[in-house]
Amino acid sequence: MTSKEIRESFKVFFENKGHKVVPSAPMVIKDDPTLMFTNAGMNQFKDIILGHAEIKYPRVTDSQKCLRVSGKHNDLEEVGHDTYHHTMFEMLGNWSFGDYFKKEAIAWAWEYLTEVLKINQDKLYVTIFEGAEAEGLERDKEAFDIWKSLIPEERILNGNKKDNFWEMGDQGPCGSCSEIHIDLRSEEEKKAISGAELVNKDHPQVIEIWNLVFMQYNRKADGSLDELPNKVIDTGMGFERLCMALQGKTSNYDTDVFTPIIQSIATLTGVEYGASKDTDIAMRVIADHIRTIAFSIADGQLPSNAKAGYVIRRILRRAVRYGYTFLGRKDAFMYTLLPVLIEVMGEAYPELEHNRELIKRVIKEEEDSFLRTLEIGIRMLEGKIEELKSECKETKLSGQDAFVLYDTYGFPLDLTALILHEQGLSVDEAGFDKAMQEQKARARNAAAIDASDWQVVSEGESTFVGYKLDNCPTKILRYRKIVQKKKEYYQVVLSQTPFYAEMGGQVGDTGYIADGDKKYEIFDTKSENKLCVHLMKKLPENVEAQFTAQINVEKRNKAEINHTATHLLHKVLRDILGSHVEQKGSLVSSDLLRFDFSHFSKVEPEQLREIEQVVNQRIRENAPLELHSGVSLQEAKDMGAMALFGEKYGDEVRVVKYGDSVELCGGTHVQATGDIGYFRIISESSVAAGIRRVEAVTGEAAEKYAYEQEDLLNEVKQAFNNSPQLMTAVKKLIDEHTALSKQMESVQKERIARLKSDLLAERLEKNGIRIFIQKDITPAIAKDIAFQLLGEVKEPFVFIGSGAECSEKCSLSLMISKDLVEQNSWNASTLLRSAAKHIQGGGGGQAHFATAGGRNPKGLESATEQILSELNLG
Ligand code: ATP
Ligand code: MG
Question: For a pocket test of ligand 1, which of 215, 241, 251, 291 has the largest count of ligand atoms closer than 8 A to its C-beta?
Answer without folding.
Answer: 241
